[in-house]
Structure formats: structure tokens, C-alpha cells
User: Fold this.
Amino acid sequence: MEENIIVSRYNEFISMIELKGIDVDALNCKKNSEFEKEDVVLDIAMDFEVEEGNQEGLEIKFPFVFRLKAFKNDTKEQKAIDSIKDEDTLFHIDLNFHVSYFLRFPKTSKNENIVVEYSDILDTFAERNVSINVWPYAREIVSDLTSKMGFPRLLIPLKKSQNF
Assistant:
């Protein structure tokens, strides 16, 4: 029963929101020209974070941070991006976006502050929708930058939504 209420509120929230834009706020990439490329196994570490949404009038904005490192991985174990040493990093790419959505308030809404009224599902929306909306932009930028750094184009995997 509780899951049906969450899904119902989530769908109600989705019906009130439209994607306005995805903007790059900051981009940082660096190639390690001193990296020893001989006989190394390269790996990729990625992470992202969708920060808390901020409502400004009829707009809600979510900051989105994406980080990627190509690195030497002798252990073949997955590594957290922050644990990778600079000397083991071939290149890194850091992207900061902000994602803006228009809000349409239903006539039944008691509160024009959507962030407050729907606070119970905003984290779910941020994880499911914001990340999926931004992901194609991050993929394109990573592919383009790796090519411009003199490497084969790197295509990061698709970001897929998970079921409730």
C-alpha cells in the first residue's frame, strides 16, 4: 500500500515538471603527460552526485557533479575515485551542470513551494530523472574531450532507470 502512495505522489510530481535546460557550469580536464603507458592495465572510475534541488519561483534547479578518471589498475579491483593517486591517473574529467525544470502548479496544490510539498520524493526524482536527463550530455562531453586529448573516444555506459 505504502509503495502505491509513493508511486502515485511521484507520478503527480512528474506531471507538474518539464525540463527547461541543462547547462555546464564548470569543466575541468587534465591529461597526465608524465604517465608511464608501457604495459599497464587501464581502468575507468566514475561517480556523480545530484545535489539538493532549489526552487526559485516557477523553476527548480538541481546541481549535478560528474567525475571520471582513467587510471592504472594493477589490482583489477574497483577503486573509489578519491582513492586513485595522481601518478596513477592518465586523465581526469570533472563536470558541473545545473539542470533546470519548469513547474506547473495544479489547482489542488495547497503550497506553491514544491520543494516543501514534495520533499518526500525529491531525492527519488533527483536520482532517477535528473541523472538520466544529464547523462547524455556527460557522455558526449567525455567522448569529445578524450578525443581532443589524443585518446580513442571513450563512451561511458548508458545510465538506466531502476524500477520502484
Remarks:
- Helices lie at 2-15, 114-117, 119-148.
- The beta strands are 17-31, 42-50, 54-56, 59-72, 89-103.
